[in-house]
Amino acid sequence: MGEPQLWHTVDDYFAGRLLTDTPDEALAAALRDSDAAGLPRIAVSAPAGKLLQLLAQVQGARSILEIGTLGGYSTIWLGRALPPDGRLVTLEYDPRHAEVAVRNIARAGLDQRVEVRVGAALDSLPALADENPSPFDLVFIDADKVNNPRYMEWALRLTSAGSLIVLDNVVRGGRVADPDNTDPDVVGTRAALDIIGSHPRLTGTAIQTVGTKGYDGFALARVLA
Ligand code: SAH
Ligand code: DHB
Ligand code: MG
């Protein structure tokens, strides 16, 4: 068994043993309908989705901001962590993705708590800030990686002490640390990591992962003040 195949097998093993308490039908259906609509297969893995849910629960999150909805798979994992009066705002550029996501989120019974906003996140974020929302307890950044430093700055503006920022896809097969790689997405992710490492309001780390999505990882940043 090659390593990527083995990583896949272990993710399936963990999902079978551990993701047993979550009503799974809406999540499975979300992936099926995303596939049927031709969306790219780049949603978080099931174990990573559950991690997002656990992080939101540990946070006691009442409000969550997601940048990059796709078909709403990660949205459903996160949304299930919210109390009935909780709120999740998720930003998606592609109206075809948003349309699939809205259906998937409604089938999961989360449409009262989740709002999908269509448009470039760098347009939606200032509009959201203008509404003076109460600080988001968790921000999940998972959209166009070139804008990751901008998204980190917006996340800082929209959070307060104790909030958690999660940044997806920071490893990309190790490209993050390859000095010869100047891909704009990789450059964007490095800049976001530099913000986490240098900003006086942030403390954080990054973790490498293997699994159904290959070799990648995520960064966590806690807002300090
Ligand atoms: N969080 C999802 C996966 C998101 S994939 C999950 O794990 O289930 C990244 C998404 O970001 C894609 O749907 C893409 O259309 C969207 N995206 C790309 N550029 C964007 C932008 N500028 N603003 C908002 N969303 C964007
Ligand atoms: C890819 C994976 C992601 O998790 C994402 O947010 C964007 C792209 C990818 O594998 O290409
Ligand atoms: Mg991602």
Pick out its properties:
Rossmann fold, alpha/beta, binds 3,4-dihydroxybenzoic acid, about 220 residues, binds magnesium ion, globular, 7-stranded mixed beta sheet, binds S-adenosyl-L-homocysteine
Q: How would you state the average pLDDT, rounded?
A: 97
Order of helices and strands: HHHEHEHEHEHEHEE
Count of strand segments: 7
What structural class do the secondary elements suggest?
A: alpha/beta
User: What coarse outline follows from CA principal-axis ratios?
Assistant: globular
- Small molecules bound in the structure, each named once: S-adenosyl-L-homocysteine, 3,4-dihydroxybenzoic acid, magnesium ion
* Through-space gap between termini: 48 Å
Structural topology:
Blueprint lengths: L2 H16 L6 H12 L9 H14 L3 E5 L5 H7 L7 E6 L2 H13 L6 E5 L2 H10 L7 E4 L6 H10 L6 E5 L15 H15 L3 E10 L2 E10 L2
Parallel strand pairs: 1-2, 1-4, 2-3, 4-5
Antiparallel strand pairs: 5-7, 6-7
The protein binds S-adenosyl-L-homocysteine (SAH), 3,4-dihydroxybenzoic acid and magnesium ion.
S-adenosyl-L-homocysteine (SAH) binds next to helix 4 and strand 2.
